[in-house]
Amino acid sequence: MEAGRRAVEQPGATFRIGGEREVRRLGFGAMRLPTEQGPERAEALAVARRAVELGVNFVDTAHMYGWGANEELLAEALHPYPDGLLIATKVGIVRAEPGTGQESPVGEIAQDARPEVLPGQVDEGLRRLRVERLELVQLHRLDPQVPIADQVGALADLQRAGKIGHIGLSEVSVAELDEARRHAEIASVQNRYSVLHREHEPVLEACEAAGVAFLPWRPVAEATPGELPGAGAEAAAEIAAVAQELGATAAQVSLAWLLAHSPVLVPIPGTSSVPHLEENVAAASLPLTAEQHLRLARLGRA
After folding, report:
1. DSSP secondary structure of 137-149
2. What is the per-residue pLDDT across 44-55, written as a single tens digit (0 to 9) for each?
3. Catalytic: 65?
4. What is the pLDDT of residues 186-217, one digit of tens each?
5. Which of 10, 36, 76, 223 is the most buried (most CB within 10 A)?
6. CA 144/CA 104 separation, integer angstroms
7. For residues 240 and 262, what is the distance between their CA atoms, to the nearest angstrom?
8. Cβ pair 279, 285 in contact under 8 A
9. pTM of this prediction?
10. Is 291 exposed, middle or buried (0-12, 13-18, 19+ CB in 10 A)?
11. Where does residue 257 rank: exposed (0-12), middle (13-18), buried (19+ CB within 10 A)?
12. Taking a C-beta distance cutoff of 8 angstroms, is the pair 89, 30 a contact?
């Protein structure tokens, strides 16, 4: 086989969160699961259960997803949890009181990671997920009004109390990650990242150096024309061409590229459809050639 056609050497199929909790590197993001009563909720329960049936053992949720309703849905679907299943949740985001000026551009939410607030959010997560310890708790966003030492320190206190297994961060820079690691062991970082959105490449490199899991959110997002160099119709056409060569979908190609790109990447694609879930999970066994990997890697470069 000629050099350009050799398959990319795949990193390991699993990753140890915090150096101890082994998970398969293709996880599931639960954010899109409907939580209202009715047929859509029944489908959401089926999706969560099917993910575990397919071998997914890492599920991502958050307090903000339905203000606890997403956590409760996962508990209804999966509790008592099978051995080895790790459900990660996020804290630090609260409802903003209307008229207080706290509302964000995306709705009535506010960041609140004060040390006196985080323990209550963790307790709520314990109750909703029906567990005695949350294996991975991530700060949904760093609170700009609270020193990083205080935010991370509050979670470290809860870790020492046995309520938290590991601590993670979301949407952070290299400098913020470094600062947080001075106050606690950080097991994961959750930033936006995909074959087309690579602005957090320095953070990924920092995670690789420290053995920290990088959980890319929106791992298969489509490019908006003009959003970044190489995006738009040309990039979509390149991904589609690789997909056609492999007899796969564009989403599968995007996920396969992430899995081959770095051993610390643990994508968490989300869906509310069982067929789409099965399609995503199948990406874990999709081999890219070295030439295909290089073509895709060029799409996210300036």
Report:
1. EEESS--TTS-HH
2. 999 999 999 999
3. yes
4. 999 999 999 999 999 999 999 999 999 999 99
5. 223
6. 13
7. 22
8. no
9. 0.91
10. middle
11. buried
12. no
